[in-house]
Amino acid sequence: QGQLVESGGGLVQAGDSLRISCTASGRSFSSYGIGWFRQAPGKQREFVARVTSNGTAIYADSVKGRFSVSGDNTQNTRYLQMNSLKPEDTAVYYCLTPGANWGQGTQVTVSS
User: DSSP letters along 29-75, please?
Assistant: First the structure.
């Protein structure tokens, strides 16, 4: 099973931007694509974004136009760029790719 490590979370103010990262070992994002998910306190984990191996991107309506996924194949890393952050974006963010275990996530907190 591949391993995933998310990083880059933090505390920001509403309207700020933040970029979080997901680095994989044992799995290749260029071959399998990536999904981003988040889980807010007391809520179920929800879908945020997905980019397939051929670059097709899908975003949840709640983040469309504000979030985008990019990547560095040489580092086997994918980024989630989050702009115009809102307090309701506060959550632990996770990445996932087929054949990998869930990582520990990275906390993003947006203050109003």
Answer: HHHH-EEEEEE-TTS--EEEEEE-TT--EEE-TTTTTTEEEEEETTT
> How many CB atoms are closer than 10 A to CB 106?
22
Q: For residue 66, give every residue at least 6 positions away whose Cβ sits within 8 Å of its Cβ, in sequence order, or none.
A: 82, 83, 84, 85
Task: Write the DSSP symbol of residue 103.
Answer: -
Task: Give the mean model confidence (pLDDT) for residues 84-112.
Answer: 96
Please write the tens of the pLDDT for every residue from 54-72: 889 999 999 999 999 998 8
What average pLDDT does the structure give for the chain?
94
Geometric angle at alpha carbon 66, from 98 and 80, rounded to 5°: 35
